[in-house]
Amino acid sequence: MLLAAVPMVYADVMYQCVDAQGHKTFSNVRISTPGMKCSPMDLGPATTVPPTRPASSAPSPANFPKVGENDQKARDTDRRRILENELAAEQQNLESAKKELAAQEAVRTGDERNYQRVLDRLEPFKNKVALHERNIEAIQKELDKLR
After folding, report:
1. Whole-angstrom distance, CA of residue 52 vs CA of residue 120
2. Model pTM?
3. Which of 30, 47, 50, 90 is the most buried (most CB within 10 A)?
4. Buried/exposed code over 23-32 (b: 16+ C-beta within 10 A; e: otherwise)
5. pLDDT tens digit string along 33-63?
6. Distance, CA of 129 to CA of 99 (rounded, Å)
């Protein structure tokens, strides 16, 4: 009775092709090479597997250690403080990285007649700015999860 609830799916035609040496090839397209004999294969109906659901949360055992509400609030407060400190440090790092990039953009050496050399020299500074911006985004997401 369970199979009635699962939708039936039919696969496209598959071909089994055998060449003159007896080598078999399987394909969903009939091969029209001279000396190749192809015959359709009967795949029959295929059933799709329904997606699995996560296991339902069963009650924890009686002897399972639990954290008190006050302890959990203290942990959450500590985590928020740590994340806010990390955010402040990343913002400072971003500002200094932007200043370094601006300083490097202002410098033009004589051997950089080709503009690509300038871009190559500036790339690590731009990457550093992008890294700190991504870190700030990640920390902001973590802080938003706490609220």
Report:
1. 49
2. 0.53
3. 90
4. eeeeeeeeee
5. 888 888 887 766 665 666 666 666 778 788 8
6. 10
Cβ–Cβ under 8 Å, residues 15 and 43? no
Of the CA atoms within 13 Å of residue 26, those in its CB half-sphere come to 6
Q: What is the pLDDT of residue 28?
A: 79
Residue-wise DSSP of 38-57: EEEE---EEEPPPPPPPPP-
CA 55 – CA 59 distance, rounded (Å): 12
What tens digit of pLDDT does each residue of 73-107 get? 999 999 999 999 999 999 999 999 999 999 998 88
β-partners of residue 15 are: 27, 40
Residue 56: what are its φ and ψ, rounded to 5°? Answer: -65, 150
Tell me if residue 9 falls in helix, strand or coil. strand
For tokens 């400190």, the residue is: 85
Rounded CA separation 35/64 (Å) = 70
On whether the CB atoms of residues 44 and 12 are closer than 8 A, the answer is: no
Measured CA to CA, the distance from residue 64 to residue 54 in angstroms comes to: 21
